[in-house]
Records
---
Amino acid sequence: RVAGTGVTSYSLHPGVIRTELGRHVLGGYPLLKMIVSAPSLCLMKTPVQGAQTSIHCAVSEGLERSSGLYFSDCSLKEPAPEGQDDRAARQLWELSARLVGLEEN
């Protein structure tokens, strides 16, 4: 749709990022929360690390030819089979558009 306009788009996975989004998960079980949280913190990215793939796609020279492709860890990757399902993508788009009141042109 945007061919020839100079607009590029990418899909990406920033990784699992250490944020405060899960601060209330297991709130009633502090010991369990500590047991689960401690090891997972070692595996999570910091917000700065998580931003790197987005920054890479936004500023890297020569990525124009990669518009429409999928990136993870600042590298071009093959999406999972679910990410290549055109029927599911269309259903997700239609549901999302309906939920936000977007009329299709």
---
Amino acid sequence: MEAIRLDFTTQYNQFYLSSDNGNAALSNGIIWTEKAYDDRLGAFENFLVVFPESYGHVRGELFVLAAGNQEGESEIYDHVVEGPLNIASGVLQILDCPGSFKQLEIPLTPGQYRVKVSFSNMVGYDSDEAESNDKCTIEIWPGNDLAVKVLKSFPRK
């Protein structure tokens, strides 16, 4: 399992995982809900919104797995959430906010996937700070579960 490094700038405490440049989700204009914000993950057609603690700088790693990793709720993580993502195009994209510019693009076999986002180092930072030491680890694998599930919760301030 090779880690793909994430290190980019976004805004508004969010970035996106998509398979279609965000076209399906962004065209309907509704990508933010209170529940998604609290869960730190919103699931929409071909699109996930990830809500890190940091307002701007995103650091972390992405892992493409053959199957789900059950060890993700360990003590090193403050918040862990899973959700579905349909990779219809055969390409996984990470997009910034608000411009939806591609920060990463990797080929994947078209199909339904599960995505686990695990956040660490969230304690002691205000969500309006552009810089913090929070980190997100993203794991993606083939899977048909369509529910968003919070496995470990870090409360919003």
---
Amino acid sequence: TEDTKCMCKEFKEQIADPNFEGFCHCMLYYKSLKD
């Protein structure tokens, strides 16, 4: 399922937030406001 991928479900929700910038909770991905 999607949840077994390392791209955290929580981070997908953060990506959907245009004001979020930072690492996901597993520290593998970083979202920049420039993206």
